[in-house]
């Protein structure tokens, strides 16, 4: 394995590592704080709140008697409640010397269930808070549509469209509030009718749905070929392309055969060879479609000015986004279990998540914050899976206790916990092997 070829896949390696660890710390910290604060509200004493594992780098004890600490391995965290031997490497024998009601094991069923459920719930709350803020500040497009900024484009196109231009028509097609690009003729460049400084005039602008790289998928052809955000595809196998739809058609028609992409970047033009791969594509109406892809999505060559949304409207949009993430994640898990989609193509481990985080970091702060929201929802949901050792496994035990009026026997619980731990470790090892396999195949 040639590490000199693998390392470039992580982009700016220090930024990738820092971005991933920061995201993980925020998500895990919020998750564990949910356990901690709800447990405290329920009268359960937390002995330790730890960010990270291993040797303790810093710690302090608060007025409630909880030791807050930062450990050397920033790959997770935990809360250890009094009398709970599952949350940390050592058990809590302090339960023998205090009010049993303050221990995790002796607390009422409702208190234990609320404390366990709080972790994933706080992850979902974090997701909604982030998405609400994004929708509030991103806002909605103002009317009339007004250009905010333009991406760098080939000088040969003669683009004269400028920031602050109010777009009235594109390619002769009226363009106003609620308009789309569907009826705009596929041509590059295009005539635009705009209002500039109160004067209506004709200018030259790009076709809106350009094959302009907006984001990349790790370990697919575009990423492996070295394409970057902002690259413009001008031809495929020598045939000029003006629209992303033309690139998609060429990739689909290739049936996996290699394609030569002509790419414009910062005033230079060069060729790259890309080999499409068959992948599972989630569909808006649900389900998956297998198709040939090279692994990039397009972006508009310009942005429009926006105005903030109200809190209520932004919150509603954030809740819709959370519901979408939850339902699609459940669908993906179910499809992998039933074999409808390939786990080998769709499952990511820590290395894959770090790589994806690094690519998102390079796209900007807004995308990075949105990525944290997405990861938080996904981690909260995965923690609710009914697997012993996860929060969902504990909740299953509590449901059993509520129905039968007796707890799962200790020996059975420990055996199931051990089985759950083995299963989780096997899944992590499998995902890691997939990550390494993708890197090694580069």
Automatic annotation (TrEMBL):
This is Zinc metalloprotease. It is a multi-pass membrane protein. GO terms for molecular function: metal ion binding; metalloendopeptidase activity. Its EC number is 3.4.24.-. Residues 155-267 form the PDZ domain. InterPro entries: PDZ, PDZ_6, PDZ_sf, Pept_M50_Zn, Peptidase_M50. It is an enzyme of class 3 (hydrolase). GO terms for cellular component: membrane. The gene is rseP. Its cofactor is Zn(2+). The chain crosses the membrane at residues 12-31, 37-58, 109-137, 368-400, 412-434. GO terms for biological process: proteolysis. It is found in: Membrane. NCBIfam families: RIP metalloprotease RseP (TIGR00054). The keyword Transmembrane applies. Belongs to the peptidase M50B family. Keywords: Hydrolase, Membrane, Metal-binding, Metalloprotease, Protease, Transmembrane, Transmembrane helix, Zinc. Pfam families: PDZ_6 (PF17820), Peptidase_M50 (PF02163).
């Amino acid at each position: 394995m040639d590490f000199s070829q693998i390392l470039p896949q992580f982009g700016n390696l220090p930024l990738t590592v820092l971005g991933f660890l920061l995201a993980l710390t925020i998500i895990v910290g919020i998750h564990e704080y949910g356990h901690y604060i709800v447990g405290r509200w329920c009268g359960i004493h937390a002995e330790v709140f730890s960010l990270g594992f291993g040797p303790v780098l810093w710690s302090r004890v608060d007025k409630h008697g909880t030791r807050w600490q930062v450990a050397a391995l920033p790959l997770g965290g935990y809360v250890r409640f009094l009398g709970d031997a599952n949350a940390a490497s050592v058990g809590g024998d302090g339960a023998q010397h205090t009010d049993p009601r303050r221990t995790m094991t002796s607390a009422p069923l409702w208190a234990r269930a609320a404390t366990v459920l709080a972790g994933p719930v706080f992850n979902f709350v974090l997701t909604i808070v982030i998405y609400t803020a994004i929708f509030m500040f991103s806002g909605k497009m103002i009317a009339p549509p007004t250009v905010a900024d333009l991406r760098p484009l080939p000088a040969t196109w003669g683009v004269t469209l400028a920031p602050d231009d109010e777009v009235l028509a594109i390619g002769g097609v009226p363009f106003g509030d609620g308009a789309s690009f569907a009826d705009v003729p596929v041509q590059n460049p295009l005539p635009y009718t705009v209002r500039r400084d109160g004067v209506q005039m004709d200018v030259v602008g790009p076709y809106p749905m350009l094959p302009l790289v907006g984001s990349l998928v790790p370990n697919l052809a575009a990423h492996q070929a070295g394409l970057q955000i902002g690259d413009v595809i001008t031809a495929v196998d020598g045939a000029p392309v003006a629209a992303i739809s033309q690139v998609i058609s060429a990739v689909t028609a290739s049936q996996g055969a290699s394609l030569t992409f002509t790419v414009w970047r910062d005033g230079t033009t060069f060729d790259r060879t890309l080999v499409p791969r068959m992948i599972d594509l989630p569909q808006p109406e649900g389900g998956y479609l297998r198709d040939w892809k090279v692994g990039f999505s397009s972006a508009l060559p310009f942005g429009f000015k926006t105005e903030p949304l109200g809190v209520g409207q932004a919150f509603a949009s954030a809740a819709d986004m959370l519901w979408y993430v939850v339902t699609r994640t459940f669908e993906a898990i179910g499809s992998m279990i039933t074999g409808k989609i390939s786990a080998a193509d769709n499952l990511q481990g820590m290395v894959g998540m770090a790589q994806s985080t690094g690519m998102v970091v390079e796209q900007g702060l807004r995308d990075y914050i949105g990525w944290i929201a997405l990861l938080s929802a996904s981690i909260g949901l995965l923690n609710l899976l009914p697997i012993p050792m996860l929060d969902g496994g504990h909740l299953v035990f509590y449901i059993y206790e509520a129905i039968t009026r007796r707890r799962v026997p200790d020996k059975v619980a420990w055996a199931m916990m051990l089985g759950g731990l083995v299963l989780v470790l096997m899944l992590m090892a499998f995902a890691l092997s997939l990550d390494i396999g993708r890197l090694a195949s580069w």
